[in-house]
Design goal:
It holds the Pfam family GDPD. One of its GO terms (molecular function) is phosphatidylcholine lysophospholipase activity. One of its GO terms (cellular component) is endoplasmic reticulum membrane. The chain is α/β, with parallel strands linked by helices. It has twelve helices and ten strands. β2 and β3 form a beta hairpin. The radius of gyration is 21 Å and the shape is globular.
């Protein structure tokens, strides 16, 4: 009897303490400093309105007033940091070669027409700008715009060069970097802990485990940004008729586990921004902000801007 009372009182105390700290995390953790806040994030510069990862796309998004540019980086044979999503040039340039095997001068231009990954049966036709840009071109053209850098390959030279460039352009307070790979994120953090990092996939799974066991409020977190997909959009990208029953079940389960308002509120209270990607219609924009997301990443920056303006969602301070 005494043992049962002890166990019950311990569990009750744990649950109540966890619930309190979940709602008021600053009792235990100092709120992280937020060098910038982003509601409007342009994925690959806005891949649905201009050719992805081009200077034309980035300029269009910045002119619209985007709060952040999201882009991807690779290293060429002559060790130039270029902005491109794929390691292979086949999809974007029609050349069966890898960026790492060519010098920057040898890189071909983008194709005139590219598919939009997160919008079903959608293609974007480009204008005159089809050049693969250098990361330094982006930094020089948009010195005051936050940039979200996806380090696409586990290459120590790439990580070091991006870090050096961020420092040289005085952008440690305007940059976030990382990758789904935990190894890459750890290397980024080790190379320069002053540049905020994203949660890797492994760390997202850890985060969910801590959240659902009630341990999250007790655990310190080094990351400052959580970027996660909204799993339910898979039915819009693929089409519900093209998904098997098991695929629909997995998407529903992942959506149920990830899209938790309590989790987002806890993280934002700790100064950790929550971005949801890649959303391209008003229904998903609305759901993301209703759940408490800090920002939305989109291929269509004009659509998102119109939604924010129409709904009176204030710009970050």
């Amino acid at each position: 009897m005494c043992a049962a009372v002890y166990v019950l009182s311990t569990v009750t105390g744990y649950v109540l303490t966890s619930a309190l700290l979940m709602k008021c995390p600053n009792i235990l953790h100092r709120r992280k400093r937020e060098p910038f806040l982003s509601k409007h994030i342009s994925h690959r510069g806005g891949a649905g309105e201009n050719l992805e990862n081009t200077m034309a796309a980035f300029k269009h998004a910045v002119d619209l007033g985007t709060d952040m540019l999201e882009l991807d980086c690779h290293l060429t044979k002559d060790e130039q940091v270029v902005v491109s999503h794929d390691a292979s040039l086949l999809r974007a340039s029609g050349i069966n070669a890898h960026i790492s095997d060519m010098t920057y001068a040898e890189l071909p231009p983008y194709l005139c027409k590219l598919g939009v990954t997160f919008q079903r049966e959608c293609f974007c036709e480009g204008g005159e700008d089809k050049r693969i840009p250098l990361l330094k071109d982006v930094f020089e053209a948009f010195p005051h715009t936050p940039v979200n850098i996806d380090i696409k390959v586990n290459d120590d030279r790439l990580i070091k060069k991006v870090s050096e460039m961020v420092v040289n352009y005085d952008r440690e307070n305007l940059t976030v970097w990382g990758n789904a790979s935990n190894k890459i994120v750890n290397k980024c953090y080790t190379e320069n802990p002053r540049i905020p990092v994203l949660f890797s996939l492994f760390r997202v799974l850890q985060l969910l485990g801590l959240f659902y066991t009630g341990l999250l409020p007790f655990v310190p977190l080094k990351e400052q940004f959580l970027e996660i997909p909204m799993p339910s959009i898979i039915t819009k990208i693929k089409g519900p008729d093209r998904l098997t029953r098991s695929q629909r079940l997995i998407a529903w389960l992942a959506d149920t586990l990830l899209m938790r308002k309590t989790l987002f509120q806890h993280l934002t209270a700790r100064g950790i921004q929550v971005y949801i990607w890649v959303l391209n219609d008003e229904e998903d924009f609305q759901r993301a902000f209703d759940l408490g997301a800090t920002g939305v990443m989109t291929d269509f920056p004009t659509r998102l801007k119109e939604f924010l303006d129409l709904n009176g969602i204030s710009k970050p301070r």
